[in-house]
Amino acid sequence: GLIIDIDSQFDYIVYRLNSEYPNRLERVIDANDGVSNREDSSRTITTRVNSFQLRSGGVELSAVSSFDQVSSVDITLVTAKNLFGRTFQETLRTGVK
Length: 97
Description:
The chain is mostly beta strands.
């Protein structure tokens, strides 16, 4: 995927669904140029994404009016694969504070 450029004094690590292939989850690192030990990079974390949700207090992050009030994020990732005529599904749920 494409590297993003966020004007900030911090490194940003962004997880996003690829706009061309929405079943791919990517991790994009936008490092603070000239300061960070990290380098800008992008890589596919997983394919076959059926659902990717970020919530805080049961509310989708896209509906949060101010991130100042967000103290934790609940992440749900569902992937699925068809194999031998059967569908196999995996779900990952975790929280980040």
